[in-house]
Design brief:
Elements lengths: L2 E13 L9 E18 L3 E6 L4 E7 L13 H13 L5 E8 L9 H16 L6 H16 L5 H8 L2 E5 L4 E4 L7 E5 L6 H14 L1 H23 L3 H18 L4 H12 L4 E5 L6 E5 L5 H10 L3 E3 L9 E2 L2
Parallel strand pairs: 3-5
Antiparallel strand pairs: 1-2, 1-12, 2-5, 2-6, 3-4, 6-7, 8-10, 8-11, 9-10
Helix pairs in contact: 1-2, 1-3, 2-3, 2-4, 3-4, 5-6, 6-7, 8-9
Bound molecules: (3R)-3-hydroxy-3-methyl-5-(phosphonooxy)pentanoic acid (PMV).
């Protein structure tokens, strides 16, 4: 039977998290550690999944019951992606899918959205369905919303388009930013963040303080737009200053943590141009923009306060067929 391997990159948010859920912009970069998905067409209408990174082994069900019953956490995005694709483009038989990630699903690099994108791209390829990047985005973003109810879709866009993107909620704008480098140091807190509960906590705050939160979102959106222009000119000190302001806003939203703040301050004290949390907050990763001369010192400072520096390329290629 026909078989294919598809890969998509993980992502890191540079600026704009949380506000981007509510009709503002953000900037995201695709990272060099990738998700690999193997898809094989089956003669019978069954769905099979092996995803050892998220503890799914020998998972199997009939196509007719896709999306129904008790679905293991590690299978939800892939199963829903298959369901959404085949609802629109019916398959004759079934599909066996195996996922393997180069990065830990704990980092917050977006393993769920990367695997969702790989599944849709792979099914399109296997069935000779001609899908544009925008059509892949629509199907993958719908899948993410079906599973987790909330989200801007920035992670889906990063997995599809790769590179560094200026992005507005729901893919209203997806614009690559021409960059040849992005001098980032990435530090992992060792704590897994729960994106949906952090979005909910911020929503609850917005319910109690609507005006204040709206001001914060507007500020964040403005900073993203200014950083967008500064990035095009490779004005790293200005981008960094805006990142520091953004971190202050995220502190106000209540999504930073002692561990994140410790690593961020250690990076700044060691000479980073700027530093902030990346993603929903609460844990996952922080990022620092750093000159070549200061990279070593900043990395050591992050490690010294208990962070784990992750050596990762940024601004990399989006989803692609491997085999
Ligand atoms: O937790 P992450 O890394 O998926 O980042 C979430 C960023 C949010 O803005 C809070 C949510 C979103 O979908 O944009």
């Amino acid at each position: 039977m026909k078989k294919i391997v598809v890969s998509a990159p993980g992502k890191l948010m540079l600026l704009g998290e949380h506000a981007v859920v509510y009709n503002h912009s953000c900037i995201v970069t695709a990272v060099g550690q990738r998700m690999f998905v193997t898809l094989e067409l089956l003669p019978e209408p069954t769905f099979e999944l092996e995803a050892s990174d998220v503890e799914v082994a020998g998972y199997k069900k009939r196509f007719a019951s896709l999306g129904e019953g008790d679905i293991p956490k590690g299978a939800r995005f892939v199963e829903m992606a298959v369901k959404n694709f085949t609802k629109r483009y019916p398959l004759k038989g079934g599909v066996r899918i195996t996922t393997k990630s180069e990065f830990s699903s704990l980092f917050g690099f977006g393993s769920s959205s990367a695997s969702t994108v790989c599944v849709i791209k792979g099914l399109a390829e296997l069935t000779n369905t001609n899908l544009s990047s925008k059509e892949i985005f629509e199907l993958a973003y719908k899948t993410v919303l079906d599973v987790q109810g909330k989200g801007s879709g920035f992670d889906v866009a990063a997995a599809i388009y790769g590179r560094t993107l200026y992005f507005v909620t729901g893919g209203k704008v997806i614009e690559p930013i021409a960059l040849d480098e992005l001098p980032l140091v990435v530090g992992y807190t060792g704590v897994k963040a729960d994106t949906v509960s952090l979005i909910n906590a911020v929503a609850e705050k917005a319910f109690r303080h609507p005006k204040r939160i709206e001001v914060i979102y507007t500020q964040i959106g403005d900073m993203v737009d200014e950083a967008h222009a500064a990035l095009k000119e490779r004005n790293w000190p200005l981008v960094s200053e805006l990142m520091d302001f953004d971190q202050g806003m995220l502190e106000s939203l209540g999504v930073s943590s002692q561990r994140l703040a410790g690593m961020i301050h250690a990076a700044r004290d060691a000479g980073a141009w700027g530093a902030k949390l990346s993603g929903a907050g609460g844990g996952d990763c922080m990022i620092a923009l750093v000159s070549r001369e200061k990279k070593q010192a900043v990395s050591e400072a992050i490690t010294k306060v208990g962070g784990q520096v992750i050596d990762v390329a940024t601004n990399v290629e989006g989803v692609r067929i491997e085999l």
